[in-house]
Fold:
Amino acid sequence: MTVLVASDLDRTLIYSAAALGLTMPDPVAPRLLCVEVHESKPLSYMTETAAGLLAELTADPSVVFVPTTTRTRKQYQRIRFPGRPAPYAICANGGQLLVDGVADRDWRRQVAARLAEECAPLEEVHQHLLSTADPAWLRKARLAEDLFAYLVVERALVPDEWLKALSEWADARGWAVSLQGRKIYAVPRPLTKSAAMHEVARRTGATTTLAAGDSLLDADLLLAADAGWRPGHGELADAAWTAPTVTALATAGVLAGEEIMRAFALEAARLGRLDA
Structure:
């Protein structure tokens, strides 16, 4: 039996200093491992316990760990996970499939063809974002892998009415909007993590899929997996979203990442015992 573990990264497995959620007294705070450095500064962390669990999981030849992220390839490749390097990684919300660190061109062509057929072009959406965003709260506007767009904003200043109007405008054109921290993503609806996960499962012969994620862009991934987990923070938690095969954790912050890693390890071990 091959078990595929597809997990979102930011605010699911790894956490910035601002997202750690260390509410306990300092002397009992968990020890942290930095797994990402950006511009010579530490950026993302896991607990040491979570890192150890991941190293053990990736050492199991019956488990295929697949980092699954909305990050671009360049952003993903800054991360240094403990354990055996992941043979597959899903970037750009499913738009890029990396095989041993190299982008799969056939997959990229399939994605491009589907987007051209099913939704409005990126340039139309990008221009709409630029023309409607208020300079008072807009800090950056970016395109990712020529697949989707996102804004970096001062979250407290962004009107809820603007977000609602943007979501309705985008939905009519086959796009989805997701707010994650200080970033507002506009992503084509056919661009999904679940489609890429299914492709990796096909290539590896995985018979069971496990997944985790915290945002609305992870909902399709969680629904497509045989079992999934979401932390007690993020868009999905805020919406009280769940599903029959998804476990909604109460834990928030970096300790949720540790709990998710423990759940992956326990479920993979259980499945291994069933297969023995």
